[in-house]
Fold this sequence. Notes:
The structure is a homodimer. Chain A has helices at residues 19-22, 26-34, 51-58, 63-66, 70-77, 116-123, 177-197, 201-208, 231-235, 246-254, 273-283, 298-302, 306-325, 387-394, and strands spanning 2-4, 36-41, 87-96, 102-104, 131-136, 141-147, 216-224, 239-242, 258-260, 289-294, 332-335, 339-341, 346-348, 352-357, 380-383, 400-401. Chain A is α/β, with parallel strands linked by helices. The longest helix of chain A has 21 residues, at 177-197.
Amino acid sequence: MIVIDGMSDRILRDYGKTPLEMANIPNLDRMAKEGLCGQLDVLGVGRRAGSDTAHLAILGYDPHKVYTGRGPLEVAGTGIKLKPGDVSLRCNYATVDDNFNLISRTAGQISESEGTMEFEKILNEIKLPVEYEFRNSLSYRCVLHLRGIGLSGDVCDAEPKREGEALNKIKPTKEGREAEKTSEILNKFIEESNRVLKNHPINLKRIKEGKFPANVIISRGAGRTPELENFYDKWKMKGAVVAGIGLIKGLGFMTGMDVINVPTATGYIDSDFMAKGRAAIKALNDHDFVLLHVEGTDEPSHDRDVKGKITALERVDEMIGYVMDNVSDTLIVVLADHTTSTDLGDHTADPTPLVLWGGDSVPDEVSKLTEKEMYKGGLHRIAGRDLMPLILDQTNRAKKFGA
Amino acid sequence: MIVIDGMSDRILRDYGKTPLEMANIPNLDRMAKEGLCGQLDVLGVGRRAGSDTAHLAILGYDPHKVYTGRGPLEVAGTGIKLKPGDVSLRCNYATVDDNFNLISRTAGQISESEGTMEFEKILNEIKLPVEYEFRNSLSYRCVLHLRGIGLSGDVCDAEPKREGEALNKIKPTKEGREAEKTSEILNKFIEESNRVLKNHPINLKRIKEGKFPANVIISRGAGRTPELENFYDKWKMKGAVVAGIGLIKGLGFMTGMDVINVPTATGYIDSDFMAKGRAAIKALNDHDFVLLHVEGTDEPSHDRDVKGKITALERVDEMIGYVMDNVSDTLIVVLADHTTSTDLGDHTADPTPLVLWGGDSVPDEVSKLTEKEMYKGGLHRIAGRDLMPLILDQTNRAKKFGA
C-alpha cells in the first residue's frame, strides 16, 4: 500500500488543471491503465480528514472510536512508549517575535544537522510539575510527552491558524480541572522554551546568517494515549511501515507493525523516495503487508507551491516504476490519504484516487492517474473502511461468511 | 429475479478473459444493453459471501442477524419442518478410504437413480441418542436433522478443506455441554454411516464398475433453526421459488414462499434450465415475485472447469431468451449471488453484475453482460440490502416516506 500524501488536488485557478494532470508520471499512469481504479472517501463523502484520521481509516480503524489526537501518534513515532493516561503533543520548532507573534511555523525548515540535537537536550531540563520528555522527530518536527495521572488531552493548540498571528495561549477545550492543569503545564513549557532558546548561540548565529531562529516550541494535537488493536490480530497479516514522518511511524508502532527506518527520508520534496521504495521491496520478503508512506507531495501543497508538488509527484513516480519492476505476485494499492488543494493550502474532502494493480480482477477503462480519470473507475466510489476488506479479498485472504 | 449462481469471475490466468467474456450469450447481452445495469456488493465491499448468506441479503434479510448456518436452509429444502432448537446439517454422500481419508466429496456425483434411495432408508435406522431424520436432497447432496433440546449448532464440519485429507472429527467450535453432546452424536452417525454403507451391494457394484462408492456421510454447516420473517409480510409480494438445490428451496420454505419443484433440475451443467424457465413463467401467473435460481454455473467454477462454466452460461442464456420472450409488464432482474473465481475454485467478494430489464427507468450505455461493462452501469455500485427496495420501486410498489 503506497500512500502518496495529499497527491490529489482541485483545479488550480492559475492553470485550469490539477498537479496530477500537469505532472509527467508515466509509471503511475501505467498502473492506473493496467489496474482497477476508483475513488475513496476516506472518512466519508464531504468529510475532511487529517493525515492521522485518514491513515487510521485506511488501515481499518474507526477514527471516530479510537482517535484521541495527533500527538500520541507523533510521540509514538519517536520511539517513546506510551502508557494509558499519558498526554502527548506534536510540536514544531518555530520562530516568534518578542510579542509571541508567529514568524515561521517551521523555523525555516530547521533540521537536526542545524543543531536541534542540542536544543532537545536543554528542552528536557525545563522544570515542570510533571514528568515529561521532549524529543526531536523529523526536521523541524518534535514532540512533547507528559506522563502521569490527572492530565487531559482536551486543550487547544499553541499554533495559530496563520503565520503573522500571535501564538494561542493554551486553554482547556472542555471544562475540567485536568485540562486546566495541563494547560498551565503547557503554557509554562512554551514560555520556558522561548527563554532557553532565544539567546542560544545556534540561534544567534542563524539570525546573523539571515535564517529564522528556532526560538520557541509550539504545540498542537494534544491527546491521551489511544487504544489501537494490533494490526496482525485485526487482519492476520504481518505488517511493516516504511515512513519518514513520525505520525505514520507512530501509527506503525502503536498497531504493532515493524517500523522500518529510512535515514535519508526527509518528509519533503527532496526526500529519498528511491530508498523508501527499496526498503519496501525488501520488507515484502518477510511481511504480508507493507505500508509505504511518502509525505513529500503534501508539504508543497500546504505551502501553495505548485511546482514543488509537481516535482514531488514526478520523483515519487520514479520510485513507483522501481516498485512495479521489483514485485511479483503482489497486489499494489496506490492512494492518497486525502486530497490537498494547493490553492487553499489545506486538505479537502474530495475523494482520493485509488488504484489496485497486480490482482486478477477485471481492469477498467481508466487510462491514467488523474482525478478525472478516476470517475470512470470500475471500483466506483468506496469508503475508507472498506479498503482493508477489499485488499484481503483481492489477495485471497478474506474469510467467507456463509457456505 | 434470476440468480445465476457464481456467474461472474475474475480474469482467467490462462485466457486473459472471464468466462462471461468468452461465452456466447446473446440474450443476456441484449438484456444488459436494453436494461439498467450495475454492480452489487451482496454483503458489502470486500466481504465474501456463501450462497446462503448471499441469498438472504438479496432477499432483504440481514444475514448478520438471522444466519445460523447452511444446514437449516438445506434441511428445510427437503421439506422437513424445522422447530426452534433443532439442529440441521448439510451432508454429502462421499467416498473415504479405510483410514477415513476423503477420496471424493461427492462419491463421483452419485445421484438418486444410482440407488441413494436405498441408502436413505438404512441411514435412518442408525441408533442415535436423539430423534433424527436423514434425507436425500439433490444428487449427492443430503441432510441430517436432529430434533429436541440440549443440541447446539456450534460444531465443526466433518468435510475437510481438500480431497486427500482425513475427515475432521466433529468438535465444538464454542465451549459448552450442548456442543459436546452434538459432536458425539455426529461422530457416531458418521462412523455408523460408513459401517452400514461400505459393504452395501450397491457400493460393491460401483467399485466393480470403477465408480466411487458412497461409503460415508460427511456433514457441514450445522446450525440451529433461524427465525426468518415471512416474505409476504416483509415485502407485500406473493413469492415463489424455482430452484433445484435444497439451500434455495429451503430459503423459500422458511420464508413462506411457494416452492416449485422442477424434477429435471440437477444443480449441474446438465440441468434442465428450460424447464425452470417455463416453471418461472407459469409461476408469474399467480405470484408477484418469482426467484429463479440456477446452480449450474457455480459448480464448474468450483471444479475449476472453464469450459463447463461457459457451457452452463450458454445453456442458461437460452433459458433467458425464452423468459424474455414470454413476459410482459414484468421487471426481470438478473444477478449472481456472488462471484466465483474458476482459477481459485472459490467465491470472491468482487461485486456481481446486476441487470434490471423491463422497467421504465432510463437505460445506460452498457452494451453486454460482462464484468467490465458493468463498470459503466447507471446503477453504479449498490449494496445487497438495497436490492429489494429497488425492485419495489421499479415495480411501483414502494411506500412513500413523507408526503
